[in-house]
């Protein structure tokens, strides 16, 4: 515990308070700052410590008030300008953040932190070339600051230069060989580029040097799985779990890895746990990612012959209904009543609140299809089959539950070749980085036809944005053949 001694040395009090703020010990810093303020008149340095303390406690509005007053009294103080740029950036005022950072650069052109702040604001404003220029100068000014390198790498990747983005990080490994974050950033960039061989190489290098954490092993496991080296991936995942038994990212990877290589679908417990924890923010998060499938399903249904003729279709079965986003998108069409099925009780709670479903059932969709005796004229499944690798069983269940001539509309993620042009997984489907399966177009076509359907429509939408890139998908409307019995 820090004890306050009566002293006239306000500089010592101020410096100690600043040190405690740096360490995140806000409760200990506050009385020392108050003592320094009582012993000395207001100053830019005291204002800066007060603002940082308030920000550290989450009181961003109070921090802004302190900074506004401090800058009004000392408009050329670089520290206050940089702090206000950072707070404005955190509050979403990107233009204001850029102005303050630019003022700090004008006052002190050699300050790398000011240039990094300006670069971050430029990047978020979409001014990528300016962001790269600012961040290059920041890295040149402080080559060992990993945060600057990560920001520059992100800017170069956004500018369409992934090779330079990776070089910035590998140069960082050379400059700071003991830094785990820069190694992980380089591995993650390789995974995003689907350069799984390089990702494994970097992770193995980190392991051999003893500079690795749970995420290093988790990403190594994902890269190995993507290369089809499942036994090695299982070892990497076990190492990740040892190092980070409570890390949610690691647990996500490890549980996802349980679906490979022997299992053909994600475990039920994994799906339930993930979506129960996701339910309250599910809709807002997907909307922020530009999620397109509910609207795409609506467009397909608007061309349905019955709807074109002014007739209604129903009842409708919504498999993996989640929070009810599809029912919300198509609820004004002549459809219904709706029945929804989902594994996650908390997702069903969100769906129930929308008041769109006549019935909601908690359970696995394959088991539900097997128990259900009803025939449906329309079944929909938006981003549900991505939790299944092999699709033959689910297509068979759908076939049994559709009326002859009934439609099944569904989406899947489209499998992509890796950095070297190799299709990951078994060529038909592969488990991806986020624990979802992606499927090959030829496999979907063959499985659909073998199950007794004909394809009415095949679209290739961008499902959503992820890690700065569009996720390619397939959206199909298929029909149970009338004469198949």
What would you note in describing this structure?
This protein has 485 residues and is an alpha/beta fold. It has a domain at 274-480: 3-Layer(aba) Sandwich (Rossmann fold), CATH 3.40.50.150. Helices cover 56% and strands 13% of the residues. The protein has 24 helices and ten strands. The protein has helices at 10-22, 26-39, 44-56, 60-73, 78-90, 94-107, 112-124, 128-141, 146-158, 162-175, 180-192, 196-209, 214-226, 230-243, 248-257, 268-278, 282-288, 293-302, 305-308, 325-330, 345-354, 365-371, 392-401, 441-450; strands at 316-319, 338-342, 359-362, 376-381, 402-414, 429-431, 437-439, 453-459, 462-466, 469-480. Strands 1, 2, 3, 4, 5, 6, 7, 8, 9 and 10 form a ten-stranded mixed sheet that branches. Helix 5 (78-90) packs antiparallel against helix 6 (94-107), helix 11 runs antiparallel to helix 12 (196-209) and helix 13 packs parallel to helix 15 (248-257). It is elongated and about 90 Å long. The model is unreliable at 1-8 (pLDDT under 50).
């Amino acid at each position: 515990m820090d004890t306050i001694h009566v002293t006239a040395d306000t500089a010592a009090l101020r410096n100690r308070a600043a040190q405690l703020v740096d360490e995140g010990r806000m409760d200990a810093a506050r009385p020392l700052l108050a003592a320094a303020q009582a012993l000395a008149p207001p100053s830019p340095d005291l204002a800066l410590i007060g603002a940082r303390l308030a920000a550290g406690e989450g009181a961003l509005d109070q921090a802004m008030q302190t900074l506004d007053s401090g800058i009004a009294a000392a408009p050329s103080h670089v520290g206050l300008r940089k702090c206000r740029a950072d707070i404005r950036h955190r509050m979403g005022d990107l233009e204001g953040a850029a102005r303050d950072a630019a003022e700090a650069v004008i006052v002190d052109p050699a300050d790398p932190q000011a240039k990094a702040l300006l670069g971050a604001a430029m990047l978020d404003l979409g001014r990528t070339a300016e962001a790269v220029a600012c961040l290059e100068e920041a890295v040149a000014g402080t080559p060992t600051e990993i945060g600057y390198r990560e920001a520059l790498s992100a800017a170069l990747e956004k500018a369409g230069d992934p090779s330079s983005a990776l070089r910035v990080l590998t140069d960082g490994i050379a400059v700071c060989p003991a830094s785990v974050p820069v190694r992980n950033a380089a591995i993650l960039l390789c995974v995003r580029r689907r350069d799984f061989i390089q990702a494994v190489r970097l992770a193995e290098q980190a392991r051999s040097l003893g500079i690795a954490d749970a995420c290093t092993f988790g990403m190594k496991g994902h890269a190995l799985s993507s290369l089809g080296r499942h036994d090695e991936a299982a070892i990497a995942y076990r190492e990740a779990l040892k190092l980070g038994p409570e890390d949610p990212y690691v647990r996500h990877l490890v549980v996802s890895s349980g679906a490979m290589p022997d299992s053909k679908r994600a475990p039920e417990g994994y799906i339930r746990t993930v979506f129960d924890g996701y339910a309250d923010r599910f809709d807002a998060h997907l909307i922020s990612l530009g999620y397109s499938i509910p609207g795409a399903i609506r467009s397909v249904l608007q061309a349905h012959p019955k709807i074109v003729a002014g007739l209604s279709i129903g009842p409708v079965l919504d498999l993996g209904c989640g929070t009810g986003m599809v029912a919300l998108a198509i609820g004004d069409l002549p459809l219904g009543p709706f029945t929804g099925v989902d594994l996650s009780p908390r997702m069903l709670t969100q769906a129930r609140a929308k008041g769109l479903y006549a019935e909601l059932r908690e359970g696995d969709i394959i088991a539900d299809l097997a128990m259900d005796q009803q025939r449906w004229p329309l079944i929909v499944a938006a981003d549900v089959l991505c939790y299944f690798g092999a699709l033959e069983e689910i297509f068979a269940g759908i076939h049994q539950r559709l009326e002859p001539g009934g439609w099944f509309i569904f989406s899947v993620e489209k499998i992509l070749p890796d950095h070297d042009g190799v299709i990951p997984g078994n060529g038909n489907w592969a488990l991806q980085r986020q624990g979802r399966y992606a499927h090959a177009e030829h496999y979907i076509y063959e499985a659909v036809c073998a199950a007794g359907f004909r394809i009415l429509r095949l679209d290739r939408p961008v499902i959503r944005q992820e890690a700065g890139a569009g996720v390619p998908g397939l959206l199909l409307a298929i029909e149970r053949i009338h004469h198949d019995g």
